[in-house]
Amino acid sequence: MKLVKIYECLCDPTRLRILNLLGGGALCVCDIQEILGEPQVKVSKHLAYLRAHGLVEARRESNWMIYRLPGRRPRELSANLACLQDCVREDPVFSGDASKLRKLQNRPGRGSPACCGPRARARSSSATSGP
């Protein structure tokens, strides 16, 4: 991975926020959208950009896309993600994101991304099945 490509990805505040959130583990696109307070289209475009450049990986779980940081990271990416974690500790936007993420993770029944967990699937299938 070229260092310039990493920095091109890091030059956008929304992408920085997404990468910072994913530093805590995998998240569904709807979780990221909820935390950032941004439209799904905007979040998805940023995630697609990060994915195309190898900064995130994705897997499909039913109807949802789950994103995470790559399992095998080039040294340059690891160093920059560590720097990001250190640099954002005092920033109110990133602190707010971390607080929202903790609340999301502490929801009852949360074992996987909230929208993809067993309760969400049950709600989804009961909503789509007839009376």
Short overview:
The chain is mainly alpha-helical and 131 residues long. Helix content is 59%, strand content 9%.
Q: Report the CATH superfamily.
A: Winged helix-like DNA-binding domain superfamily/Winged helix DNA-binding domain
- Give the N-terminus to C-terminus distance in angstroms: 53 Å
Global geometry? globular
CATH architecture: Orthogonal Bundle
The CATH class name reads: Mainly Alpha
- Low-confidence segments, given as residue ranges, are 118-131
Give the radius of gyration: 16 Å
Q: Helix share of residues? A: 55-70%
Tally of contiguous helical segments: 7
Number of strands: 3
- Helix vs. strand class: mainly alpha
Compute the number of structural domains.
1
Q: Kindly report the average pLDDT value.
A: 83
Strand order of the largest sheet: 1-3-2
How do the helices and strands follow one another from N- to C-terminus?
Answer: HHEHHEEHHH
CATH topology: Arc Repressor Mutant, subunit A
The largest β sheet comes out as: 3 strands, antiparallel
Percentage of residues in strands: 5-15%
